[in-house]
Amino acid sequence: MKEEILELLSDQTYTRRKIQELAEHFHMTETQDYVAFIKLINEMEDEGLIIRSRINDYYLINQLQYYKGVLELNKRGFGFVKVDEDREFYIHDSNMKDALHNDTVLIEKIKSHGQREEGRIVRVLKRGKLRYVGEVKRGRKDYIVKTDDQKFDKPIIVDAAHMHGAMPGHKVVVEIKTFKPQIKGDIIKIIGHRNDPGIDILSIVHAHDVDIEFPKEVYEQIEGISDEIDPSDIENRVDLRNELIVTIDGDDAKDLDDAISLKKLDNGHYQLGVHIADVSYYVTEGSPLDKEAIKRGTSIYLVDRVIPMLPHKLSNGICSLNPNTDRYTISCIMEIDKHGEVVNHDILPTVIHSSYRMTYNNVNKILDGDQKLQQEYAPAVPLFFLMQDLATLLRKVRDERGAIDFDVDEAKVLVDQKGKPTDVVLRKRGASDKIIEEFMLKANETVAQHFKWMDLPFIYRVHEQPKVKKLQQFVNIVKPLGYTIKGSLEHVYPNELNAIIHASKGTDEHVIVSTLLLRCMQKARYDAQCLGHFGLADEYYTHFTSPIRRYPDLLGHRLIRTFLFKQDYKQTVHFEEVIPELAEQSSYREKEAVDIEREVTDMKMAEYMSEHIGEEFEGMISSITSFGFFVELPNTIDGLVHITDLTDDYYHYDEKQMVLVGERTGRIFKLSDKVKVRVVACDKKERTIDFEVVGMESRKKKSKIVKINDRKVKTKRTKKGKINRSHRKTRKHR
């Protein structure tokens, strides 16, 4: 009936809008029906679907200039409510009512300022968050929890009966039970004392509602899983245990989910085998393991730990393709011609016996001519050079197709045993890294194309064309640097954007151009529809190669098992129903994982730089805003030079050109400018670093004490600003 009510009220000519009149229209006049109808109308009003006018007539919310959206709160008190893709309302702090960050709210439009619309919050429809991480402190009567969330500055009162053993100084998870007249909550988890090693990282993890431990039901299920493969299933598989197969991963990797075989055929073609851990054999649909994997969505890789999607018994044990051990796999075996095209392929259930557990570093050294390592791994050395030949061919084909090579540096924070950062270094990508990347991309593409042409339910990795508005902003910024996009922005092709990146290579602004273009891109996501991958210039794409650490890959394997191996087409309708929801959940959990990884990295970078306050560094201007500019150091650490610290002049911000221009001197700060800066402040909690330009006379500033690892550091107070570091994406999230 909800849909019928909404359809009726959408008719602007319909006038009988009072509750009794609506009940009569739907023949809900008997007492029992009438009561149920009133409850339904109240429910729709609470959901923000309809609203009552001053004379108690009911309308759709937008018919009376009301809108529904999610509040994005700024830590300075104001906020924005996005009501659709291209429309948002500014909310002054005086019009917030009792709404909090991420709440779903009903707003009323009150006025417009040029292109900016302003509204006021009428009521909160749904709280965005009930659980917060914070530190326990003593209040006047009861205890309070001061949250870590910079956008939630209200203390949460906790009475003694709901402390559950927490004491002042403890970092805790608190759940809000009441919002009025005071915000009160219960402590549901003690994370640890604020000064304990690792508690800073765990606080961020718990703030995103991520569980560290697996539930009891999962541990009970994995007790029945053997540490060795069940030999009874070998007869159902293609036996590849006599083939030369290797894994190539990072030095410290323990979840080895992909292995490679490669040979030259008599016809001159390559036969590439990408063998992926058969996780779906152990994680069956609807089991406790499966439900927990859906909830987690992905493994989370932090500076000092991994929060796995699957328990270690699977991720590091029976599913990991460890050397000299029989393991079950699903293999995509491709015949590739001299033009880099897959002319034939098979997707098979297999059993393998990996010959070598190789690392990127060692394979790089072998390819560079390290004779000691070449002797140690002599039987596999020809394989590595053959891999390099094929990867070069595949990369050439990808470049010709127009795939975008963002080539953005990635940083790694090194920490000691207590979690204290000791260095920030760039991740080096050698030849073997690129080899594995090419092979994984080709396997993902081949599997996606196979299912697309079979017209069966599947989960795809999609990356849609960038929005015209963002591309126009990109063009405005890079045009002064000498770059432009040819043709229409509405129908831009990946090769045109890739041409800009290639043109900038070898120049000072290359990193800036790559980063700015990456920010223009829409976020890649999972979908039941095969919509292509813009960045890879690929019509077909999925994630097939990492089922140990990504749920979509595991789901893809389950679909391969169901439709290709078992040929169970009765499951078609079932998977058509569940895949869209699982794709949405996986996309959400991936975003959360990226946010957690970024927040931890930024926090540790701020902590690291706190040891360098007063020191000078040379960097490059990576972003410019109305409140200053950000300077990125060679190791990717960036900090803010606030506009109030540009003391040699009064600077105006030119948004279109993205420059700061001095009023009197005409001095210009623009993207890619090299500047020498001094570290003046770091805040680990806010994850910010403040610089000042060397050579400018400092304004008189108040001292600020910043606590780092329980040690007080005296710094200069500057205004803080944050940049959205969305460009810090790793290749594993492609």
Automatic annotation (TrEMBL):
<dbReference type="InterPro" id="IPR013223">
    <property type="entry name" value="RNase_B_OB_dom"/>
</dbReference>
<keyword id="KW-0269">Exonuclease</keyword>
<keyword id="KW-0694">RNA-binding</keyword>
<keyword id="KW-0378">Hydrolase</keyword>
<feature type="compositionally biased region" description="Basic residues">
    <location>
        <begin position="713"/>
        <end position="734"/>
    </location>
</feature>
<feature type="domain" description="S1 motif">
    <location>
        <begin position="614"/>
        <end position="694"/>
    </location>
</feature>
<comment type="function">
    <text>3'-5' exoribonuclease that releases 5'-nucleoside monophosphates and is involved in maturation of structured RNAs.</text>
</comment>
<dbReference type="InterPro" id="IPR050180">
    <property type="entry name" value="RNR_Ribonuclease"/>
</dbReference>
<dbReference type="InterPro" id="IPR011805">
    <property type="entry name" value="RNase_R"/>
</dbReference>
<dbReference type="Pfam" id="PF00773">
    <property type="entry name" value="RNB"/>
</dbReference>
<dbReference type="InterPro" id="IPR003029">
    <property type="entry name" value="S1_domain"/>
</dbReference>
<dbReference type="InterPro" id="IPR001900">
    <property type="entry name" value="RNase_II/R"/>
</dbReference>
<dbReference type="InterPro" id="IPR004476">
    <property type="entry name" value="RNase_II/RNase_R"/>
</dbReference>
<feature type="region of interest" description="Disordered">
    <location>
        <begin position="709"/>
        <end position="734"/>
    </location>
</feature>
<dbReference type="Pfam" id="PF17876">
    <property type="entry name" value="CSD2"/>
</dbReference>
<dbReference type="InterPro" id="IPR012340">
    <property type="entry name" value="NA-bd_OB-fold"/>
</dbReference>
<keyword id="KW-0963">Cytoplasm</keyword>
<comment type="similarity">
    <text>Belongs to the RNR ribonuclease family. RNase R subfamily.</text>
</comment>
<dbReference type="InterPro" id="IPR011129">
    <property type="entry name" value="CSD"/>
</dbReference>
<protein>
    <recommendedName>
        <fullName>Ribonuclease R</fullName>
        <ecNumber>3.1.13.1</ecNumber>
    </recommendedName>
</protein>
<dbReference type="Pfam" id="PF08206">
    <property type="entry name" value="OB_RNB"/>
</dbReference>
<keyword id="KW-0540">Nuclease</keyword>
<dbReference type="InterPro" id="IPR040476">
    <property type="entry name" value="CSD2"/>
</dbReference>
<dbReference type="InterPro" id="IPR022966">
    <property type="entry name" value="RNase_II/R_CS"/>
</dbReference>
<dbReference type="Pfam" id="PF00575">
    <property type="entry name" value="S1"/>
</dbReference>
